[in-house]
């Protein structure tokens, strides 16, 4: 295996990322994790990540994050069904310290990013997916547990998945995602062998995240989550959300949503690959709780409050332990082991 294709060791990753706190803020796509959040997390000594958006907005957010982060590194997150060549260019031009892929193996994108000299981690839920990612040239993996918020590759709790994925990864770094609310969660996953942890819901509940304020309020007061397929138009991958009018209308009998709808959603997968991200957000404005055709779009700051009842409210099981909206720097400080 040539040096460029060799996975990083966990030690090499730590050196390159210069993390003062071994915590990566998850790249939350569709606009939630923009430049302000990623820049604030990196500046405070963690690793901030810009989530996927339409390419020009994504490039501008990466540039803003780099500016706010000072001399500290910033990462990017790409969702495989929605990646375009322009996203790869933006990651290279803005010198992302790391690119995390989610939502599929994305062999082509691993190769394109690695050709540009970028480190690539692939999000996985199983040992087999970890082996495939590393064989395809990934620098390491993010192991996701099924308690995580957002789209789920995780199929079992992170504490059970992590040892199997570490065994498959050999010397390559494994980051652990799912269920991180407090410093003791971070310490436990590091003690199990994770090179760092990834936290999403904790950073969704920050002043710098661009989620709609009513979405943040509902997550902060939620006491349970639902793993569903409901918001799957164009991307039929299971996802963890909190309840809203849409789930109350369609998930009462079966949390996954009505069975005929799930079959239709599976057929809608090409729509996601072919529709630009900007157009997907436009479709979200037409959604109504009474009509079960929901895209993966999230309610952002500036959208009407009603969007919170017709879009996915992604959040993980840590909602039972998180109840406050903090600055990103304070959230990171609370996670420092
Ligand atoms: C609001 C939200 C949006 C997310 N969007 C993405 C995304 O675009 N890409 C991605 O790799 N993971 C995404 N995730 C999942 C995270 O990467 C991570 O696996 C998860 O947040 C970890 O669990 P936690 O929420 O308990 O911290 C998202 C999570 C949340 C809560």
Any ligands, ions or cofactors bound here, and which? Answer: flavin mononucleotide
**Strand order, largest beta sheet:** 1-9-8-6-5-4-3-2
CATH class of the largest domain, named: Alpha Beta
User: How many domains, in number, for the residues?
Assistant: 2
What level of helicity do the residues show?
Answer: 25-40%
Biggest sheet record: 8 strands, parallel
**What's the architecture of the largest domain in CATH terms?**
Alpha-Beta Barrel
Describe this structure in words.
The protein is α/β, with parallel strands linked by helices and 337 residues long. It has 2 domains: 3-210 and 323-335, Aldolase class I (TIM Barrel, Alpha-Beta Barrel); 226-314, no CATH class. 39% of the residues lie in helices and 13% in strands. The protein is built from 15 helices and 11 strands. The strands form 2 sheets. An 8-stranded parallel sheet has the order 1-9-8-6-5-4-3-2. β4 (98-102), α5 (107-115) and β5 form a beta-alpha-beta unit. The longest helix is centred in the N-terminal third of the chain and has 15 residues, at 55-69. The radius of gyration is 18 Å and the shape is globular. The two termini are 36 Å apart.
């Amino acid at each position: 295996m040539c040096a460029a294709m060799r996975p990083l060791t966990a030690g090499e990753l730590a050196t390159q990322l210069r993390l003062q706190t071994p915590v990566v803020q998850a790249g939350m796509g569709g606009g939630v994790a923009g430049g302000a959040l990623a820049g604030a997390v990196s500046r405070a000594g963690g690793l901030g990540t810009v989530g996927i958006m339409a390419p020009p907005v994504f490039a501008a957010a990466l540039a803003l994050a780099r500016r706010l982060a000072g001399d500290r590194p910033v990462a990017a997150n790409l969702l495989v069904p929605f990646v375009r060549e322009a996203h790869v260019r933006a990651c290279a031009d803005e010198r992302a310290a790391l690119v995390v892929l989610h939502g599929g193996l994305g062999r082509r994108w691993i190769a394109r990013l690695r050709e540009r000299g970028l480190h690539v981690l692939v999000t996985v839920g199983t040992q087999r997916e970890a082996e495939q990612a590393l064989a395809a040239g990934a620098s390491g993996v993010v192991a996701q547990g099924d308690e995580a918020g957002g789209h789920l590759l995780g199929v079992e709790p992170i504490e059970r998945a992590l040892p199997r994925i570490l065994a498959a990864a050999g010397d390559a770094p494994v980051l652990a995602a799912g269920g991180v609310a407090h410093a003791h969660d971070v310490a436990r996953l590091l003690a199990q062998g994770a090179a760092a942890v990834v936290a999403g819901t904790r950073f969704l509940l920050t002043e710098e995240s661009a989620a709609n304020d009513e979405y943040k309020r509902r997550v902060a007061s939620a006491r349970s989550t639902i793993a569903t397929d409901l918001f799957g138009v164009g991307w039929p991958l299971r996802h963890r959300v909190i309840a809203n009018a849409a789930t109350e209308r369609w998930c009462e009998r079966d949390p996954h949503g009505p069975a005929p709808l799930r079959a239709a959603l599976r057929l809608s997968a090409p729509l996601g690959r072919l529709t630009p991200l900007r157009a997907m957000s436009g479709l979200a404005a037409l959604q109504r709780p009474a009509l079960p055709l929901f895209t993966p779009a999230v309610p952002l700051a500036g959208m009407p409050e009603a969007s919170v009842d017709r879009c996915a409210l992604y959040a993980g099981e840590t909602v039972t332990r998180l109840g406050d909206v903090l600055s990103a720097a304070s959230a990171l400080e609370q996670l420092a082991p």
